[in-house]
Design goal:
This protein is of the alpha/beta class. The protein has a single domain, classed as TIM Barrel, CATH 3.20.20. Helix content is 40%, strand content 14%. The protein is built from 13 helices and nine strands. Strands 1-2-3-4-5-6-8-9 form an eight-stranded parallel β-barrel, surrounded by five helices. Helix 7 packs parallel to helix 9 and helix 12 packs parallel to helix 13. The longest helix is centred in the N-terminal third of the chain and has 21 residues. It binds (3S,4R)-3-hydroxy-2-oxopiperidin-4-yl beta-D-xylopyranoside (XIL). (3S,4R)-3-hydroxy-2-oxopiperidin-4-yl beta-D-xylopyranoside binds next to loops.
Length: 367
């Protein structure tokens, strides 16, 4: 009888253990010796109003980037008013769960506060620039791991984007932004972040920029390649060349906003410029119910190719961050065409791992 009971118990324990084993693998664990694995966090998730997402974040990721709440329009809505509420909550969440924060971002032409929109005086822009960087970066020094100090300062041809900062402060403003950030946040890593900088011309512009910062004796610790690409058309050779060229500058390389759109593009260009929009149509939104298996495979293959490359260069790569937790939460449902149904991430709308998730896991050495 006792023997029978203990046999039953043994079987029960094995079944339980099996269930535990059968749990989905964790990205942050399988890549723990390789690079950090991050996700963007939106306001709901930071507020604790999306328990399923928060659970998944704790299970899968060891790095987070605030999707919006540390951008200028939110964190400094008025000339003299700051709103640190969400950013402070993010810091608390990350601390509790042993997650590194990449703060995003200090200087960017987009999502600027309303009072900046028609600012004419160079003196005022300079005052804003100094105050914003100093106040925000110093508050989070030692609390965030890194800052995207400057975001998206380059045009596709590698020249500097003609935004309010270039216009009013001149072409040294990026060096100055890093100099101010270095002073305000001496314990925080400082990065330049942009999209399409794997492309040869824009990459050359980014390299010139980084060299200029270094030549000025100012600290820059890394470069973030955003990684908003198309499934089935990921520019693998350019990405590999970029990892080599950027890491040769003695800085960390990161993929910071990874997502692979499965939808047709309204243009023949690839862009993540948030100010670009296009008209929708049924043809532009083909998978409103579900993603067909054939496309799931294309997505999984692109992710597998990418992570195989990332593993080859794991010594040069510090972090891979996905831009969102699940498909339903991706900004690509709204960009560049409003109201589409996109499937660019590793988890579906019910937080279930997709084929692409397992294809990524399969590239890890210790899964
Ligand atoms: C996007 C956010 O995901 C959206 O919620 C927001 O409406 C617009 O910005 N490059 C960046 C990110 O550096 O900050 C952008 O995030 C996507 C493109």
């Amino acid at each position: 009888m006792i023997k029978k009971l203990s046999t039953l118990l043994f079987i029960a324990v094995m079944v339980f253990a099996d269930n535990v084993d059968a749990q989905i693998p964790s990205l942050k664990n399988v890549f723990k010796n390789d690079f950090l694995i991050g996700t963007a966090m939106n306001a709901q998730q930071i507020e604790g109003k999306d328990a399923a997402a928060d659970e998944l974040i704790k299970q899968q990721f060891n790095a987070v980037t605030p999707e919006n709440c540390m951008k200028a329009e939110i964190i400094q809505p008025g000339w003299d008013t700051y709103n640190f509420d969400l950013a402070d909550k993010l810091v608390a969440f990350a601390k509790k769960n042993n997650i590194k924060i990449n703060a995003h971002n200090l200087i960017w032409h987009s999502q600027l506060p309303g009072f900046m929109h028609h600012m004419q005086s160079a003196d005022s822009v300079r005052e804003y620039f100094i105050n914003h960087i100093t106040k925000v970066a110093s508050r989070y020094d030692g609390k965030v791991y890194s800052w995207d100090v400057v975001n998206e300062a380059l045009n596709e041809d590698g020249t500097l984007r003609k935004d309010i900062f270039l216009d009013k402060l001149g072409d040294n403003y990026i060096v100055e932004a890093f100099r101010l950030a270095q002073k305000a946040a001496p314990h925080t890593k400082l990065y330049y972040n942009d999209y399409n900088i794997e492309q040869p011309k824009k990459r050359a512009g980014a390299i010139a920029l980084i060299k200029k910062i270094q030549a000025a004796g100012v600290r820059i610790d890394g470069v973030g390649i955003q990684g908003h690409w198309k499934a089935g058309a990921v520019p693998m050779a350019d990405i590999e060349e970029s990892i080599k060229e950027f890491s040769a500058l003695g800085i960390d390389v990161m993929f910071t906003e990874l997502d692979l759109s499965v939808l047709p593009s309204p243009w023949d260009k690839v862009t993540a410029d948030v100010s670009e929009t296009a008209q929708g149509s049924a043809k532009m939104n083909p998978y409103t119910k579900e993603l067909p298996d054939s496309m799931q495979r294309v997505l999984a293959k692109s992710y597998a190719d990418l992570f195989t490359l990332f593993m080859k260069y794991k010594k040069q790569i510090g972090r891979i961050t996905f831009w969102g937790v699940n498909d339903g939460q991706s900004w690509l449902n709204g960009f560049p065409i409003h109201g589409r149904t996109n499937y660019p991430l590793l988890f579906d709308r019910n937080f279930k791992p997709k084929r692409a998730f397992y294809s990524v896991i399969a590239t890890a050495k210790n899964h």
